[in-house]
Amino acid sequence: MHEESRTAASRRRFAEEARSERPDLSLLCLLLGAEADPELGDDEIDAAQIELDRLAGQLPYRPGGAREWAAALAELLGARCGFLGTPADYQRLESSLLHEVLRRRRGLPILLSVVWIEVARRAGAPVYGVALPGHFVVGFGAREEQVLTDPFAGGRILTGEDAQELVAGASGGTVTPSMLTPTDPLNIVLRILNNIRAWAAARPERSDVALWAVELSLLLPAHPARLRYERAQLLVQRGDFLTGAAELETYADVVTTVEPTTADRVRDQARAARAMLN
């Protein structure tokens, strides 16, 4: 299949899955990875899903309550399989791509958490993601028996004090009950895309990565309106002045009622982008 039509087909599949009744987190992450890796086709996506199934098959059958599930995942994925993170992983785009994390067994906290969630879910565990400020972890069990684990640390079970230290180190704040609630799959995917955009923002030569990350974010049912402005800026930066100018004007029309000064500034940017063609 031609690369452009393959990308379009992958994006259609991503958008359809994101709008389905029960979005498949692992599939969305793998379709996201296809944007970065043109070699990641249907067969490779299927192989990654099979690997998650294989790992789930190595867990003990219903080991017990939340703490026993957490310990079983830490033993399998952390101790035996060697999934964990290091500071150097924050510098690699591969650390945000599920198929690469499965291959390298290294990744960012949120991608390692996706591995934990998807393996545990397949085995029937009461598992979910927990978006602590600055550090994503995994939760097991209902609120009254909740056990948190840190896949970045190989699945270490967190005490309340451990969780407090993570939050204090990231934001200077304290743990609140709202921080410990399950994060739905679409919010996890949006956070992954935000991480990729941040990675690309620090590398101006990778505006191609920033652009596809923004465009996938825009395919999610709920996303910040400002992403349209970011996409327009990237298009202009990459030399697509006419499309970028049109996108800037569209964004200006959206915000003109609530932020007229911003709308005027964005329209000036659109005129400047068109002037670059002269």
Automatic annotation (TrEMBL):
This protein's superkingdom?
Bacteria
* Residue span of region Disordered: 1-22
Ranges annotated as biased composition (Basic and acidic residues): 13-22
InterPro entries per the record? Answer: SirB1_N
Supply the Pfam families for this chain.
TPR_9, Transglut_core2
Enumerate the spans annotated as Protein SirB1 N-terminal domain. 49-194
Q: Which family does it belong to?
A: Belongs to the UPF0162 family.
Protein name (Swiss-Prot/TrEMBL): Tetratricopeptide repeat protein
Provide the species name: Streptomyces longisporoflavus
